[in-house]
């Protein structure tokens, strides 16, 4: 089992998508108005305000094409549509502007509904069971047709935008950033596959041809009108000359401490230096060895196991090894 669902897109907007937010609010409010009245009221509402293909074909109750766009069958139907509208609607609203976007959205819903009505009529002649097309009396509801127009426009305008997606593959759960042309392209191919299947009389609760009609409408409108994606220039930050700073590489030298009866011998591996570059600091219980040469820096602080007199004897640096003697303090 494979399940993918978009979470958000990585194509940010600069203006608040108030029309998108309003459409989402209206859909949610209308759903709960019917839901709170009970199942019977919701069922009756579908037949009163939903677009019934048979009625539309006879030129009756055409206003239901508009009202049907704000009805949803259940909470999952509503949530799925609103997530898609929230993810993709803001960018199309940002590109078209608020007034043009609301017109584009509503007209897309009309085209989607008519595509579904035509598909039910075609099914009457292509159905495996002749003259048995129950969809003619089943009302079409939902915002998915209009939202499909938004998806079609998004694909044309922002094909390379990344869609952050939840992916469930059998028992594996992960998240992926998928290019819009890949995600929305396969989404459309699935609608086509299921849409042609439905033409042969295989009944479905999903209006696939409404999705196809809305999607194609969105693509055609964007292409025909020559709408271009927004390319706002990014503000150029003030640049001032900066002097590069190269931090030296700090190396912790290998240090060995040998304790004898009356003295302590310290050995440190510090290759590639001159003895004059080495600095040693000694206290009663601690030795600090440091050196810096070009881009190399050695630094090591070592706690001594016994107390010593803070004075260095027999300092020798040979073949990259530093050695010196400290006498114990009794």
In short:
The chain has 330 residues and is α+β, with helices and mostly antiparallel strands.
Overview of the molecule:
- The structure is a single chain.
- With 330 residues, the chain is an alpha+beta fold.
- The protein folds into two domains: 2-224, Rhomboid-like (Rhomboid-like fold); 251-327, Immunoglobulin-like.
- The protein is 42% helix and 22% strand.
- The protein has helices at residues 18-35, 39-49, 53-57, 64-67, 75-96, 98-126, 144-157, 180-198, 208-224; strands at residues 2-9, 162-169, 172-179, 249-251, 254-259, 263-269, 278-282, 286-293, 296-303, 313-318, 321-327.
- The chain has a four-stranded mixed β-sheet with strand order 4-9-8-7, with no helix packed on it. Strands 5-6-11-10 form a four-stranded antiparallel β-sheet, with no helix packed on it.
- α1 (18-35) runs antiparallel to α5 (75-96) and α5 crosses α7 (144-157).
- It starts with a strand and ends with a strand.
